[in-house]
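To: structure desk
From: M.T.
Subject: fold request, one chain
Message: Could you run this one when you get a chance? Sequence is below, nothing fancy, just the single chain.
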Amino acid sequence: MEPKFFGRNYRRGCERDGQQFSGEKTLRPAWGSKHDVHLLLPLLSTHTPQLIRHYLGNIPLIYLVRHPLRRIESHWRHWRGRVNDCPPFHQLLESKALKQRVIEASLYHQQLMRYRRWFPAESIHCLTTEELNANPVESLNIILKFLGQPPYASKLLPTEQLPVANSAGSKGRREVAQPRWTKVLKKQTIEIIQPESEQFLETLQWPKNTWALE
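Reply: Done. Structure tokens follow.
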């Protein structure tokens, strides 16, 4: 479920958010909501971890990340397909809006540290989209164990495959072609995200070659 209470719907009040889960506690052993860090209102994003802790306490959090460059491409495609005045991809570093919304959301270590200020490390489970897609049942069982639930991922995924949803062009968005990197743009973008990526991998003790940026 993606009510976006801690994002653009925050000013509508917590009562509305709670209504989204009416009956969930009795219907399912575990439930939660999804929030994209790059969709949060700029004035609220700084305080989002604090707000989550204030309203919900020390809850388990799942941080799903993917190859930083692939995430940037996907984010731009979705934004371009939804917003008519979204700058073109080649202005990725020239446009303040693109740099803030698209580039900075791939600074994973910075995002993680924002939440670790309010939540202990053991309350945040990080995993990659690549691992989730490659091993969905195993990955979901690890998540279920993290949530204190029995490993029933095979029941959730009888085909052992994740459902494909929200592709570029879905939800009323225009279909946008995969963007192309120039050598200069890619080099400059990597120079921004690589230090953060390396810090993130080191903090989690993940292999340094988890993502090949070059």
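Reply (cont.): Residues 38-44 have pLDDT under 50 and may be disordered. Let me know if you need anything else for the meeting.
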